[in-house]
Design a protein that fits this description.
This protein has four helices and no strands. By secondary structure, it is mainly α.
């Protein structure tokens, strides 16, 4: 990610443009909307392949472990402070 753009601006543009695009793909997407909020994490170069493999197998992986469970585990494992009432709006 460029150091010349904030994460919030970057995500705003991704959400805006992808929402506009998906709505051109058919009437069943007419009510598509992104959830509010976002989070961003960096990945060390040594873990790039691990992350790529995770993304490729994400659908299969979430059949065993729900995203919600996995995300809470991730936050706790890396000692990221959070208030769960703000996570699932």
């Amino acid at each position: 990610m460029s150091k010349n753009i904030s994460l919030s601006k970057f995500l705003e543009e991704i959400k805006k443009n992808s929402s506009r695009w998906i709505k051109t793909k058919g009437v069943h997407y007419k009510n598509f909307a992104w959830q509010g909020g976002y989070s961003g994490y960096s990945v060390s170069q040594s873990k790039v392949e691990v992350v790529k493999n995770y993304i490729e197998r994400q659908k299969e992986h979430h059949k065993k472990l729900l995203f919600r469970e996995e995300y809470l585990k991730f936050l706790c494992e890396y000692r990221i402070d959070f208030d769960e009432k703000y996570l699932w709006k």
